[in-house]
Amino acid sequence: MGNIKFVKENKEVVAADGANLRLKAMQNGIDIYTLIGKMTNCGGNGQCGTCVVEIVEGLENLSPRTDVESRKFKKKPENYRLACQTLVNGSVSVVTKP
Hints:
alpha+beta
């Protein structure tokens, strides 16, 4: 078990190990999409790249980057992740819409 702290929203939620970051955000009313992302998101399949988040604490408590993320984030910092591809295994702090 771990806590996911959504920094901009000043909200903290509890997550079981292996919880999907995108689903936990949605279940708790956290908006992770920009306006364009709301209209074009792929529903969590890792194809559109619109659920980008920045991990500011606890990067070591997440699943490794997927191949999809590695391709999409070639020029982005290591702490940028796609929420739909990220599994939480401990406490993390997240900035939505970086």
